[in-house]
C-alpha cells in the first residue's frame, strides 16, 4: 500500500515511495484514507482460514498482527528492511501469546522453498512486480491442498512511480486457473479483490463470465471516479479564479499599507528614544540598589547565626520525635498482639457455641441415638483438633507475650487473663461430654414442644395468608379507584386552569366591551342631539312648508308653517327649545343566587383575629386581600413532600424538563401574589420565554414598547420584599440579549447559556451572573425502546432563506450531503400549501424529503427512531451556547453529525459529535454511521454515558439551587451501589476483585464490594471499599440480608466470577435504572439486539442491578434464588445494551480477560 499524500522525508532516503500501511490503518494519512484502508485489510483478514498463514509483502505488518491476534500462526515476508524493522517493533508491543504466533522475515519469496500454508495473503504487492502473473503463481505455489489464496491489488492504471504493471481480473484468473476455483472476484473502491481455493485438477476452473463481470464492474467504477474528479477539478478551477480576483484586490491595498508602515516606523523611533531614557534611569536605580545590598549584608550575618541555632533546635526536636514514634510503634504492636489474643478467645467461644448447637440437634432425634452419638463424638474430635490448633496458637502468642513482657508489665497481666480464659474454655469442652446424656432426655421434650408450636404457627400462617390475600385484593381495588380519582382530578385541574385563563380573558374582554359601550352611548347621545337640533331647525320647517306648496292644502297652510318656523327659530335662539330624551335599550341585570351562609368557625391554631378598638368586631379583609384570595380559588397545587417548591415562568420545553426536579408553581399575572402566600416557594425562576406559562405571560417578559402590564417587575419586587431569591435564565443569548436585559437586571441572579454574555450582564446589572447550559431530561430523553431504528437520516428544524447567511450555507451543505441517503426533513415552519411562498420554506430540491411538522410530543420518539440526526449551529463562536437538541439526541443514543461550533467542541469534543466543515466530510460521516455498526454503537453508548452522567436537568437544577443557597440535597438511592458476589476459590475471588476495581463511576456516585467467600477461601485485600465475609449454607442471600439497614434505600449489583465486565458496566446500569424506572436492570438473557433497551425481558443472572427500595419484602431473595416467577408478579425489568459484559464458562485468566475486553468493551 502506498499513499499519494505529501509527507516529510524520513531517516531512510533509499526508498522515496516507502510503504506506510500501519500508519494509514490508524488514520495517520487522513480519516477517509484510513477508513478505506481498514476496510480493505479487515476484508483480507476475515477471509483467511486454517492455522498457518503466509503474508507476502507484509510491509509494516498490520495484517499479520490482526490475524495473529485471532489465533493464527502468521509468517510475514517483505524485501524492504525498514518495514520489517517497524513490524518487529510492533510485534514487541503485543502480549506473549500473540508474539509466539507471529514471525517476520526480510527475504524474497523464493527463499521460502517448498513450505506450504493454509492461507496465502498477497495484499497490494502484485502491482509492484514486472510480471504479475508469474508472481501470483509463485505465491500460489505455497498454498497447501484445500488451502486459500487471498489477493488485493489496484485495478487498472494507477500512475504511482513504484507500480510496475497494470492489473486486471483477467491476470489473476490466468495465473491460478489450473489449480484454483474462484470463490469471489470483484472490483470495489478501485481494488481487485480475489478469494480462491486450491482444488484438484479436475475440479479447478474459472468462468470467463465471472472475470468479465468483475472487469466491467471495475471499468464502471473508474468512469464514475473520473467524472467525480472532473467535477472537483472544475470546482477548484472556479475557486482558483475567485482567489486570483481576491489577490488582485488585495494588491490594490498594498500601497496604503506601505504608508501606514512608514508612519509606524516614525512612531517606533520616538519610542526608542523614550526607551533609552528609561534604561538610563534603570541603571541609576541599580546603583542605588547595590549600595542598599551592601548594608543588608551585615544584617544577613546576624540572621545566618540565628538560623543555624534554629536548625540545631529543629534537629533535636526531630530526634525526640523519632524516639516518640518508635515508642508508639512498640505500643501499637503490643496492642495488636492483645487484640489478636482477644480474637482467638472469641474464636474459641464461637466454637463452643457451635458445639452447643450440635448437641441440641442431637437431642432432636430419639430414633437415631447411636448415629447421633457417633456424630457428636466426631464433632468433639473436631473440637479437640481445633483445641490443639488453638494450643499451638496459644504457644505462639505466649512467646509474643513473653517478648512483650520485657517492654510493659500490663501485657503480662493480659496474657495471664488469656490463659485463664483458655483453661475455662477447655473445661467447658470437657463438661460437654459429661452433660450429653442428661441433655438427651431434655432434648426429646423440647422437640415435642417445638413440633406443637410449629403446628400452631402453620395454622396461624395459613390464616394470615388468607387475610393478607383478601387485604391485597381490597388494596388493589382501592388503588384502582384512587388512580381513577387521580385521573379525574387531573382532568378537573386542567379544566380549572383553562377556565381561569378564560375568566382572565373574559375580564379583559368585559373591560374592553364596557369602554366600547360607553363610547357608543356617548356617540349615540351626540347623534341624538344632532338629530333633535335638525328636527327643530328653521331650515327643516321652511323646507317642509315649501314642499307643501305643490298641493292646494299645502298652499293654504303655508303661512302657518312659516309662522311655526319663525317661532322655532326664536325658541332656539332663546334656548327654550326642549329635546326629547334618548331611549337606550334596557339590558336586564343578571342576578346570582346568594352564597350559602357558612357556619361560624373558630380561628385556626396560630392565627389571631383582628379586632377593632372597641373590642367587639373583627376587621374585614381589604379589597386587595379579597383579590388575592379570589385569584387562587380552585387552584390545586400539589407540593411533593421531598421536593422543592419553585415559582416559575417557563415555556413548554423547559417546564417538562424542570418539572421532574421540583414542584413547579406556575402563576398567571393576576394571581402570583396569592400563590406566593399559599405555596411558599423557595425561589422564583423566570426564563426568557415568549409565551410563558401557557401564553399567560406573553409580551410581559421580553422588552416591548407598550407592554400590557408590569406584573413581572411587581412579582420580582414582591419576592425581594420577602427575602426570597429570584433567578432569571436567558436561554436566547447572545442573539436576543437586548430583548431581555431590562427585566433580567432586576433579578438577584442572572444565568445565561452563553458564557461570552457574562461581561455584558456585569456591565448592565449589579446582580450575580453565571452560566447555565442546556441539558437533557433523563425521564424524557433516553434510549428506552430504541432497539429497532428505521435506518434513516433526519433533520428537524427551521430554514432561513434571508437570515443567518453562514448558518444557511452550512445547512445547505449538510442537507445536500444527506440527500444521497434515506433522508427525512421535519420543517418547524411547514406550510402545506406550496403556492404560498415564504422565506422559511426549504429550497425546492429538498421538497421530496420534507415530511411536515414534528409536534413536541413526537420529538422524543423521533430521536429514538432515526439512526443519524443532523444539527446546524446558528451561533458558532460561543463556548457554551448551542442547541438543546444536541444534549437530547446524545441522551437518546443517536449519533449527531453537526457543523462545527466552539460550544459543541468544548463540551463534547470531536468524538461524541462528528463535526464536518464541507460536503465531502459530511458524506463520509453519514456513510460511516449508516454502514459501520460498531462505530455507530460506540458513539451511541459514549453519548448516552456522557450526557446522563453530567448534563441532565437534575444536574442543572442542583447547580441553580447551589447558587441561590437552597439546600437541594435529597436521599438519592442511585448515588451508592453495593456490589455483591459469591466465590469459592482464590481464582474466582481474584476475578471478582478485578471486575470491581475496573469500574469507573461518575462524579457523585460511589461503589462498595461485598465479597462472600465459601469454604476455606482466604482473600487478602486492603481495599477499604471491599468487605470480605465468610458464608455458610445461606450463601450470598444471607449476607445481603444481614447488610440491610432499615429505612435506607440502595442499589444492589450482582456480579459473578464467570463474567467479564467492562469499566463502564456499572455506571451504565445505574443510568438505565434512573431513566427506565425498572426495579431490575441488566443484560438481556437471550443476547439479541432486539431485546436491548426493552422492558420486561428475561435478564442474565450474572449481570443484574436491583433497586431494593421499590421491591416488596422477599422479592430480592426470590431474584437471588433465580425464581423466574417474580417477572409474572409485576416486577418490571429493563435490558440495557449488551456491551461491556460477556458471560464465560470458566474463570478467565488475565490474558483472556484482556482479549475479551478489547473486543466487547465500549
From TrEMBL:
SUPFAM superfamilies recorded: S-adenosyl-L-methionine-dependent methyltransferases, UDP-Glycosyltransferase/glycogen phosphorylase
GO biological process, any: methylation
Residue stretches in coiled coil: 240-295, 331-502
Top-level division of the source organism's lineage: Bacteria
Keyword S-adenosyl-L-methionine: yes
GO molecular function: methyltransferase activity
Keyword Transcription applies: no
Keywords, alphabetical: Coiled coil, Methyltransferase, S-adenosyl-L-methionine, Transferase
Region of interest (Disordered), residue spans: 593-627
Record domain Spore protein YkvP/CgeB glycosyl transferase-like: where: 850-961
This protein's name: Glycosyltransferase
